[in-house]
Amino acid sequence: MRSTAGPEQAWRKGFDATPENASLDCGLVDSLPANARRLASVTTQRLRERRVASVKAKRSGAWARSAVAMSWGAAVMTGVAGLASTYATAAEPVTPQAAALESQPAKSKKPASDIQVIKMVFVFQEIDDPVPLSLLDFTPKDLGLAGAKLGVNDNNTTGRFLKQSFELTEISGSDPAKLVAEVKALANSGIGLFVVAVDAETLLKMSDALKDEAAVLFNARATDLDLREENCRANVKHTAPSRAMLVDALAQYLFWKRWRKIALVQGPAPEDAKFADAIRRSAKKFNLRIVEEGQFEYQAGSRRTDGGFEQVQKQIPSFTQDYSDYDVLIVADEKSQFGNYFPYRTWIPRPVAGTHGLFPASWHPSSELWGASQFQNRFQRLTNRTMRDLDYQAWMAIRAIGEAATRTSSADPKTLIDYMLSDQFELAAFKGQKLTFRPWNAQLRQPIFVATDKLHVTVSPQAGFLHQKTVLDTLGLDEPETKCTAFKK
User: How far apart are CA 446 and CA 448, in angstroms?
Assistant: First the structure.
């Protein structure tokens, strides 16, 4: 017999139903056309199956059963009422006024004028570095740019809910003067946010060219300490760690391991001398002792005929034979011309660290700490390779812009930078703690990995190192030591 229960009785039927006898037998269903009744029947069956599973999962209390039944009954009636309304509306005659309204184009939910566009530029300088020793070390064509693109994707994931759109333009080249001119032209056109992967000299030229523009440069590459100190600029922020931060991270671990006696081997490149100077400063800071120093002049043989090992297998033991006893040998070879030859070839068996062996890095492709697995997976799906330091540093710059834009609802570079340097700004970057910019030189504070090629060994700052503000300021030069005056008020 067909039921004639009204909406209230039907709702109570749904509320009191059990998984075994639940059904949609009410006047609302019977009043629908045949195809609608079939749809309602399928909907009822699916809701019944869902409720059975929910009740079985919540047998621990009668309240759960009642709550599930109530939500099931309410959901059923909402769906049926919607169907009835739909078919009732469809059955009504269409008036000329209604037809005219329907013929008008639908209004956009988000007018283009309401969407705030944040334009950014990624600048990459092609530097003619020596050919690496290993075929595994060749530079990807999208180095740095891939990290910036991932950052844009992440910004837009949030931005589309806030009516913000992030756009990225890329410029690249080997001529510093041309790059500076292009950046200047883009700044004149109104773009004020630049993520730059250039050397220190080019960065300073860009900064000086933009000193009268409403623009800011995010340094994602250069580690030179003077860029954060005597040559600091108010329109330059640093997501790349300084060389001092990297070396301090390594020195803290050496101190923790009680490897206090160091043998230092320096290469001939200017960058090698800067790294060696950073080692000497960190050794003094963390009470390490340099017992031997030497400069290694490597004369490469033919890699195809001698494999690259016959010569160094004799040369390196001879080079280190007269060294007094040490705990760790530190190599300063930023151009990677000989550093990889030192592990397992020294006269006495000791670990090798520095630019090779055990080295400091802002990022490591094996990291799974603090939710980094999904971050690594997203990058690999985008690029079909692993993330490198420059990728990560460019990603952080783009994300810092996105975070500031989200919090301030602004695209103005000055507003964004003021917020980044304030106490309210923080960046989540898969390193276990919030990252912030140092207000005295605009360097991004961050933990540093100490790693080998395959795995990270530890993360600095090490346990036991203390600071009155944040332990991240134990890496690099602290505020009382700074020579930067650009940010002083």
Answer: 6
Residue 209 sits at φ, ψ, to 5 deg, of -70, -25
Q: What's the burial of 92, exposed, middle or buried (CB within 10 Å: 0-12/13-18/19+)?
A: exposed
What residue has token string 């009204």? 6
Reading phi first (left if > 0) and then psi (alpha if -120 to 50, else beta), residue 354 is in left
Question: What average pLDDT does the chain have?
Answer: 83
Give φ, ψ of 123 to 5 degrees: -115, 125
pLDDT at 23 over 60: no
Query: What are the C-alpha distances in Å from 382 to residues 153, 270, 385?
Result: 10, 36, 8
User: Which residue type, as a one-letter code, is found at position 196?
Assistant: V
Q: Above 60 in pLDDT, residue 40?
A: no
Euclidean distance between CA atoms 338 and 356, whole angstroms: 9
Q: How far apart are CA 203 and CA 201, in angstroms?
A: 5
CB 328 within 8 A of CB 352: yes
468, 471, 473, 475 alpha-carbon torsion, rounded to 10° = 140
In the chain, DSSP finds a helix count (H) and a strand count (E) of 15, 12
The letter for the amino acid at 274 is K
Tally of CB atoms within 10 A around 59: 9
Please identify which residue in the block is written with the tokens 């001939």: 268
Residue 427 has what DSSP assignment? B
Structure-token pair, residue 421: 């340097």
Q: Which of 453, 260, 255 is nearest to 355 (CA)?
A: 453
Please give the pLDDT value at position 312: 79
Q: pTM for the full model?
A: 0.76
Residue 445 tokens read as 């504070």
Q: Which is nearest to 367 in space by CA: 456, 257, 249, 239?
A: 456
Q: Please tell me the distance from the alpha carbon of residue 423 to that of residue 103, in angstroms, as a whole number.
A: 53
Which percentage of the chain shows pLDDT scores above 70? Answer: 74
480 prior amide bond cis, ω within 30: no
User: How distant, in Å, are the alpha carbons of 300, 312, 431, 451 from that of 392?
Assistant: 33, 34, 12, 16
